[in-house]
Amino acid sequence: MNITIISVGKLKEKYLKLGIDEYIKRLTRYAKLNIIEIPDEKAPENLSSAEEQIVKNKEGEGILKNIKDGMYVIALDLKGKMLSSEELADKLQSLGVAGNSNIAFIIGGSLGLSEDVLKRADYKLCFSPMTFPHQLMKLILLEQIYRGLRIIKGEPYHK
Q: Could you tell me which cysteines form disulfide bridges?
């Protein structure tokens, strides 16, 4: 399985980088992993909705350029479907069985994802109705992918 994580924003916090590096190392036993960071656009606090749309569209263009033909795209979106760890494992396994071995997970910037990215997504996944910093979301996503792949292999994991 080939997994690509496309996220907006460069990771700056050292503690998150350490956690992400740990899960990248763990995941190499189960999948080929590629992480792509798209530069985030400057977004001051008081943007109009039109200005927010411009920022999301620019970030979206960078995301879409990195989605290859044939990739199954899972966008992280607050309006997406919430899954348990076991259900995520089932989703990953069913994608592999169906021949979708190239999976891209998309993490938007602080304003979310553009409509074009959401339209390109084959599936929308929500981790929680709460909002998380997108850098932290990358760590949470990697942990859940790792957990899901261990579940698929029938290996023990912490419940």
A: none
105 has binding-site annotation? no
Mean pLDDT of the chain: 93
The answer to whether the annotation marks 92 as part of a ligand binding site is no
127 is in an annotated binding site: yes
User: Is 130 labeled as ligand-binding?
Assistant: yes
pLDDT tens for 57-71 read: 999 999 999 999 999
131 known ligand binder: yes
Does 142 fall in a domain?
Answer: yes
Count of domains forming the chain = 1
pLDDT of residue 159: 57
In a domain, 85, yes or no: yes
116-137 mean pLDDT: 94
Q: Is 28 annotated as a binding residue?
A: no
Q: How far apart are the first and last CA of the chain?
A: 24
Helices (H), the chain: 14-27, 49-65, 85-97, 115-120, 134-152
- 158 within some domain: no
The whole domain housing 103 covers 2-152
Stretch 91-98: mean pLDDT = 92
Position 96 in a domain: yes
